[in-house]
Design brief:
- The complex is a heterodimer of chains A (288) and B (430).
- Chain A has 288 residues and is mostly helical.
- Helices cover 76% and strands 0% of the residues of chain A.
- Chain A is built from 14 helices and no strands.
- The two termini of chain A are 42 Å apart.
- In chain A, 34% of the residues are buried.
- In chain B, strands 1, 2, 3, 6, 7, 8, 9, 10, 11, 12 and 13 form an eleven-stranded mixed beta sheet that branches. Chain B has a two-stranded antiparallel sheet with strand order 4-5.
- In chain B, α9 packs parallel to α11 (234-249) and α19 packs antiparallel against α20 (404-416).
- Chain B is built from 21 helices and 13 strands.
- Chain B is an alpha/beta fold and 430 residues long.
- The chains are: A mainly alpha (288), B alpha/beta (430).
- At the A-B interface, α1 and α13 of A face α1, α4, β8, α12 and α19 of B.
Chain lengths: 288, 430
Amino acid sequence: MLTRLSPYAFVFPTAAFLACFVAYPLVWSLYLSVTDYNLIWSNTTRFVGIGNYTRAIQDPLFRRALFNTLLFAAFHVPITVGLSLLIASLVQAAGRFGRVCQTLLFIPVLVPEAMGAVIFIWILSERFGLLNNVVTMVLGEPFFINWLGQPGWSMAAIILTSYWGIGVSIVLFVAGLGNIPKSLYEAASIDGAGPIARFWHITLPGVRHTTTVVFILSLIGSLKVFALPKVMTNGGPGVSTTSLYQWVFSNAFEYFNMGYACAMAFLLGALIIAASAPRLIASRREDV
Amino acid sequence: MKCRTGILLSVIVVLVSYGCGPRQTLQTDKVLRVMSEAWMFKKYPLREAVARFEANHPGVRVELIKSPDGSPTRLLVSMMSNRSDFDLFFGSVESTVAMWGARDLLIPWNEIAADRPLFQREAYIPVFYDLNRFGSHQFGIPVSAELNLFSVNKHFAREASLLDDSGNMIPARTWDDVFDYARRMTRRDADGNIKTVGLSMNWTNCSTMLYAAIKGEQGRIVNPESGLPDVASPEIRRLLSLTAQGAAEGITTLAAMSDVNQPRSDLKAGLVAMILTSHSRYLEAWETLGPNSTTIMSVPGMNEGVTGSTRSVVLPRTSRAVDLAIAFTEEELLAPYFTRFAWEKYGKLPCAIDVFDTLDEPEAHILLKLAERSDRDPMFRDDLPMVDAVRRNVQSFLSGQMEMDPMLARLESELSQLNLSDIREHFRSQ
């Protein structure tokens, strides 16, 4: 009896935690997503079926936010993967100096994203921003671009700022590169393989798992992008930088349309799963 | 062993139950917890108020608590869960008061302080007092107020001959005048490059800018026929087209579309000559530009009044020290020294009429006259969605993504899908 109960006793705290803070909110929000619940104004909650889901699909703002989010991901994910692999390779090749660089590149990760966004507001500010004033000094004539107030530039500014947190991917790649046996490179060199061939045939397959992890982490991160557009542009000018998560947040915690916000959150969750599943499945097939 | 497993399970269940349950801490009514936003600790003498109150009430301890980020929503959920995180909140704006009041989370002051003169309407500038009245409930007592006006750098205004003999701004009569002022105050170098921009408006809060335009000209915001803000009025069209032209010409900047603090930062840095935002920025700029370096100017059509908002004191139903909260409000937060400090240091307009008798600054009396002419701003049920819809669409026009007519048509269409009934009707029906 005791032997049978003991495992349950050990599992219970975790199970209780997951039940309280994962399963229950998930089920409750799924229920809310099929109602018209408004936190402030609803005295009664009306069942609306899939009404919130169809409303989201027809909502031009949802569609625009989805487009902005995908645009952000389209630039953020491949550049994060490629750039962090490149920097990690350089860091590893540079020996001790490389490790110093790795530490320096990791430091921005310790700064909260919202705080980083505020710093970049100051850097990119039109009149007193560091960037415009440095360019003014270099050119010797006034140079004032409203980086965050013009539709094209504002999205570019947010994408560039997002590489602030690339240090995590670099650290992962450095660890992945460290696991590739040096003997493989030595054998390839003896066989006459050049740097590009060695990178293509040894390094890339060697960091396959790390690439998958970095890809999925940056994909999820970019589809959930929130703090940067919220703090830097508040989604503007107009809706040119409004992200999907921001639109969910506004509906949930500013407009209190909890039912609609929950439906959009589930659609966003489905999108993240759908976007990351192919890479996961492909990675597993490669292992087999 | 069986017993041990049972005890282990029981302990876990108790701990989980305790962790998930409402927080209950032992507290006597000799402790008063006053919550406020972090920036208010600097701009209002809250610490002095606590010291004075504790000295006058031996045995009482006052805790000052900084409100969490996103406090209106977080505290709303907290109060709805019957948690007691604070006994008194200082500095809430009307939209927060409405949000909390709608859920019956606030004690109306007129229910518990009906016999105290300092809490009565007669003691205040009526428009500010009424902003915090919902139905028959006086949920908030206003402490300070902000009006939306131009703050102008006198140096640039003087060079452009825009000051009268007394050193005051010659009021702009129309929006065309405003942009003419901006043009005259814009400074360029020998090559024609702009060094100082004439005008910066707060295009983060687009609805406030549009309200200022329409109210200045028409004396009202809501169209009496439709009951909705008249977003396609000629005044608003004129303001928007002048702004777009001015931005192209370089006499005004749209940088505030992404940074609400841009106008005040630029004014304080001497990079812009005139801003349209909360009036207190004019006094704030003295810190860097020097005393009397800036002044105020009303929006065109000043005889009709301007828009404004207040910071008020509210009492939550979950307060554990109601009597102390009333006493602290009466003795400290509504005391002349408290509001005078905020006025003298940071330009926050006192709401109590008596305090004005003690103010010497000419700007204070200009503001009082404007405030007395001001009508109460509308407060719609879907206020925030409406404010956001105005911001999105107006910014789309100003940043060149849309033409004026399609933008206004889309805005009116978006507004028509919102519930823009007067929020105060909700309380009347309660």
